[in-house]
Amino acid sequence: MKERFLAELRALGPVLVDEPLSRHTTIGIGGPAGAYFAARSEEQLRGALRAARGHGVPVFVLGAGSNVLVRDGGIRGLVIENATDRVEGPEPNGAGFKVRAASGVSFAALARRLSFAGYSGLEWACGIPGTLGGAAVYNAGAYGRSLVDVLKRVRLVDADNGVVEMRPEELSLSYRTSAFTTGALQDRVVLSVDLALDKGDPNDLRARVRELDARRLAAQPRGRNSGSMFRNPAEHPAWWLIDQVDLRGHRIGNAQISHQHTNFFLNLGGARATDVLALMDLARSRVRERFGIELANEVATVGEP
Ligand SMILES: Cc1cc2nc3c(=O)[nH]c(=O)nc-3n(C[C@H](O)[C@H](O)[C@H](O)COP(=O)(O)OP(=O)(O)OC[C@H]3O[C@@H](n4cnc5c(N)ncnc54)[C@H](O)[C@@H]3O)c2cc1C
Predict the structure, then answer these.
(1) pLDDT tens-digit profile of 244-272?
(2) Which of 20, 27, 96, 289 is the most buried (most CB within 10 A)?
(3) Half-sphere exposure of 268 toward its Cβ, with a 13 Å CA cutoff?
(4) What's the topology of domain 222-302?
């Protein structure tokens, strides 16, 4: 890593060298980052991006690490953890309310806080780990709803380090994909999102959140994981396909397909990315052979082997 680049970055805040990314992903897996910088404000986020791009250093923006599998060789270049946390609103906007939240804000925490305060529209998101930036990239959703239902606008950093605003129609948001994952916006960084909410009854909203919490608790395994590994194909849910090919509880190294939910893969302690990738390959090939269906990754696989 170039010293001049590191010095520029250190002027913005503390920098960690060779930081294990296993400390920053929900599944607890991932090799080291060449340099690791936690951006606590939009200025720091944009400054770190500008520094890396100016020095030709590859950049990876990490949210809460709840939808990534970082390979064991880690990520060369700079990893910016998005720890931005500014929230503006809710403020009246037409018939409803508007909230502008930094992309580093926890989606679940924001949804929970607003629901409990009597703003409706985000109850379904109260159990989705990850940041709002990650939610925009994946159009995160649950129980038949997704971010696009409440999204009004995103602000993002473009390839020239300028800030542009985009409407949801420009982001190609669909089931766990967007122009950020597959299209023209792949190197863009989401800075903030504007959400549209309505006024609701706090008691009703609290009851709804409790009900969804109970459903999630019953359905999802404890232990370290990255949520759903595969997207659900149109024909059948991924968990059902994986169950049908007898992989419930299957283990490779210290990675295991959950007994409770077969689209969740667990790190039993010290699992490597190669173990998880081998489990994913096994599930994919068995499902292909038996059903002729190709399982597509929901989790983003990044870094060096
Ligand atoms: C237990 C569990 C339950 C889950 N349940 C659900 C669920 O019900 N519904 C659902 O949709 N998902 C679910 N997920 C998956 C995950 O929470 C979501 O995909 C989440 O939106 C990812 O956000 P993140 O901040 O963790 O992203 P990360 O995992 O940190 O990053 C994922 C990708 O997004 C990119 N990215 C992150 N932030 C930005 C940004 N600001 N700008 C540009 N790119 C960015 C990263 O570079 C990376 O490529 C679950 C995960 C877990 C562990």
Answers:
(1) 999 999 999 999 999 999 999 999 999 99
(2) 27
(3) 12
(4) 3.90.78
pLDDT in tens, 175-211: 999 999 988 899 899 999 999 999 999 999 999 999 9
Q: Which residues line ligand 1 (CB under 6 A)?
A: 26, 60-68, 82, 103, 128-131, 133-135, 137-138, 140-142, 180, 189-190, 220, 225-227, 300
Do the domains at 87-218 and 222-302 have one common CATH topology?
A: no
Rounded distance from Cα 171 to ligand 1 centre (Å)? 16
Which residue's CA is the nearest one to ligand 1's atom 21?
Answer: 135
Altogether, the residues listed in the chain come to a count of: 305
Handedness of CA 132, 136, 141, 145 (dihedral sign): positive
What lies within 8 Å, CB to CB, of 115 at 6+ separation is 122, 123, 126, 200, 205, 206, 208, 209
The half-sphere exposure of 105 on its side-chain side, counting CA atoms within 13 A, is 24
Which tokens go with 150? 């409440």
Top-tier CATH class for 87-218 = alpha beta
* CATH code for residues 3-82: 3.30.43.10
Taking a C-beta distance cutoff of 8 angstroms, is the pair 166, 156 a contact? yes
Question: How much is the pTM?
Answer: 0.96
Query: What SS3 state is found at 155?
Result: strand
Q: Are 286 and 247 in contact (CB under 8 A)?
A: yes
Residue 228 annotated in active site: yes
Q: DSSP secondary-structure letter at 67?
A: S
d(CA 58, CA 77): 5
Beta bridge partners of residue 83, listed in sequence order: none
